[in-house]
Amino acid sequence: MDWTALGLSLRLGIVTVVLLLPVAFLLARALAFGRWRGRGVVEALVALPLILPPTVIGYYLLVAFGRASPLGAVFESAFGRPLVFSFEGLVLASLLVNLPFAVQPMQNALAAIPANVRDAARCCGLAPLAAVRRIELPLALPGIATAAVLTFAHTLGEFGVVLMVGGSIPGETRTVAIAIYDRVQAFDESAAATMALVLLVIALAALVLTNTLARNAGRRD
Amino acid sequence: MTEPPGLRVRLKQASPFALDVDFEAPAGSMTALFGPSGSGKTTVLRAIAGLDRTDEALVTCAGQAWADTTTRRWLPAHRRPVGFVFQDYALFPHLTLREQLDLALGHRKPAERAGRIQSLLEATRLEGLGDRRPAALSGGQQQRAALARAIAREPLVLLLDEPFAAVDWALRDALRRELVHLQRRLSLTVLLVTHDFEDVAKLASQLVVLERGRVTAAGSVEDLTSRNAVPGLGRWREPAVALDAAVVAHDRDRQLTRLSARDLALEVPTVDAPPGAVVRMQLAAREVVLASARPEGLSLHNVLEARVASVEPAGHDALRLVHLDVGSTRLLSLVTVDAVRRLGLAPGRPVLALVKAVAVEAFA
User: Fold this and answer.
1) How far apart are CA B243 and CA B260, in angstroms?
2) Interatomic CA distance for residues A89 and A83, integer angstroms
3) Architecture of B7-237 per CATH?
4) pTM, to two decimals
5) Which residues contact B84 (CB under 8 A, 6 or more apart)?
6) Which residue of A has its CA nearest to B83?
7) Which residues on chain B are in Cβ contact (under 8 Å) with A130?
8) Is A39 on the interface with B (CB under 8 A)?
9) Residue A196 to residue B19: CA distance in whole angstroms
10) DSSP labels, B39-98
């Protein structure tokens, strides 16, 4: 059992959720309520990680993070080390790959709020920010929780993109998913089995949690 | 130019459908915005609340401009002191009734709110239900909750969008009654959007008729109904006069109530309202019989001395609608052409209008 890898995976998952949710909420809100040009394109871009092979995403990120790219160059001049094969690079990749898992549940939850209810909030004297806090956020809470759980669980399970962008540096980029692959390659069946079981349990618990949250949110009396 | 103390609305737009309206809703009274669906009523209401924009807009209330496209003034919805009751109520599903009212009381200090909430719950007969969420309220309770939330803001104007459309027919009169009492007690300025003329006849004192985005008639309900001058109404409602009358006295022994509206005095079956109260009465033209001499031996209670104002067509070759003046009050009588001939009904002719007590519908 590779505890360092598990710790790294959990850290990556938490950082991703914390950084991604606020941004994804704003994006979800714009997609759910806005009527602007290019909305369809943005919606497609957000969903792209769902259908694109991880190697394709990984390849483009590798190019984008590389020393030759503006992003990679800025990072390296600021921190004195390359963005690729670093934890920060992994976080950045994780944020992008998880966009659909974070945005879509929140977008659906927000879109399910009747337009009249949002109008009523304004007619009750709520300024736009207050309406978000007191009406939209509570009503979209099940979607927000689902987004958090899915993002976290998916981050733990991501393999292809992590391998492409991060490689398998212990303590820096070697996540559990990578460690399992590593152990299998080394014919260390028992370590692979333990870690696989841990991921299985976490994934199952996450899904049970989301389903329960969604069910309870629907009950109002 | 001085603006009236009530609500003044002038709106114009070309698309998505043509709208060109200009009307006033006097302060302290109930104005109905009546018209078929698709006539633009809801759009007008939403523009007043600041929820939608029109190409040209002038909305003033109590001398304040809420919208004026000529000066590019636009007060956002949350800064306009309006109470809006949506057709589907739009209650907040995650909040208890108390929390909904608390939210709408944002203009009051937190310490004052509990008391306000209690009196609002009492005024809308929702005491004891403050801790329920909307899903646990009946249709009628939800309607009253929406009303309570709208009034909580202490609005200058209360905007009601078909407030009775979603409740059972049997409940409507009870809810209408509560609305009238609330309106009178708080002297609210109300703009009521409806496609049901029952709402107009029973509730409103002023009427604005909207057809295809245009105002086709405006005035007091009594004036428009007594002149049979509500456009489009004849197709589905028979001519009937709707006017306010005061309860003069009750005759307990005979179980009758005497009503008076200016020069009109009528005896009707007991009305459930104290002497001095104002009730809305309706009298259908087909219930008014005309006579040239005082009849004897009838069950009739009301014989009114009237004068023929005019004889108008009534949508059927064999019928005529006779406009009558009873002093300064106008009534309508639907009679046959034959009766017009036999009685020699012509403008200026004195006649007796016979009104059965049970023909008068009093809404108290």
Assistant:
1) 10
2) 5
3) 3-Layer(aba) Sandwich (3.40)
4) 0.87
5) A119, A120, A123, B45, B49, B150, B159, B161
6) A123
7) 106
8) no
9) 66
10) SSHHHHHHHHHTSS--SEEEEEETTEEEEETTTTEE--GGGS-EEEE-TT----TTS-HH
Which residue in chain B has the smallest CA separation from A122?
A: B78
Total tally of structural domains belonging to chain A: 1
> Which residues of chain B form CATH 3.40.50.300?
7-237
pLDDT digits (tens, 9 = 90+) for A134-179: 999 999 998 999 999 999 999 998 888 888 888 888 888 899 889 9
Q: Is B16 on the interface with A (CB under 8 A)?
A: no
Q: Which of B40-49, B186-195, B226-235, B325-334 has the lowest mean pLDDT?
A: B226-235
Contact: A117, B103; criterion CB under 8 Å: no
B349 neighbors B308 (Cβ within 8 angstroms): yes
In chain B, CATH 2.40.50.100 covers 242-363
Give the CATH number, domain containing residue A117.
1.10.3720.10
> Is B103 in CB contact (< 8 Å) with chain A?
yes
Number of C-beta neighbours around residue B347 at 10 A: 12
Does B78 contact A128 at a Cβ distance shorter than 8 Å? yes
Q: Do B135 and A121 touch (CB under 8 A)?
A: no
Residue with tokens 């879509």: A104
Query: Which chain B residues are closer than 8 Å to A124 by Cβ?
Result: 78, 103-104, 106, 149, 152-153
Among A35, A118, A123, which would you mutate to test the B interface (most chain B Cβ atoms within 10 Å of its Cβ)? A123
- In this prediction, residue A81 carries a pLDDT of 87
Size of interface A-B (CB pairs under 8 A): 72
Topology classification of domain B242-363:
OB fold (Dihydrolipoamide Acetyltransferase, E2P) (2.40.50)
Place of tokens 């393999």: A159
Cβ pair A119:B86 closer than 8 A: yes
Query: Do the Cβ atoms of A215 and A151 come closer than 8 Å?
Result: no
Mean pLDDT of B63-73: 94
- Using the Cβ of A128 and the Cβ atoms of chain B, whether some distance falls under 8 Å is answered with yes
B328/B167 Cα distance (integer angstroms): 38
Q: Do B133 and A121 touch (CB under 8 A)?
A: no
Closest CB from A122, A123, A220 relative to B93: A220
- Tell me, yes or no, if B78 comes closer than 8 A to chain A by beta carbon: yes
Q: Report whether A162 contacts A101 (CB < 8 A).
A: no
Q: Kindly indicate whether the ipTM for this predicted assembly is greater than 0.95, answering yes or no.
A: no
Chain A touched by B135 (CB under 8 Å): yes
pLDDT digits (tens, 9 = 90+) for B304-349: 999 999 999 988 899 999 999 999 999 999 999 999 999 999 999 9
Tokens describing residue B325: 């003046």
Assess whether pLDDT exceeds 80 at residue A214.
Answer: no
Q: Quote the domain boundaries for residue A94.
A: 3-217
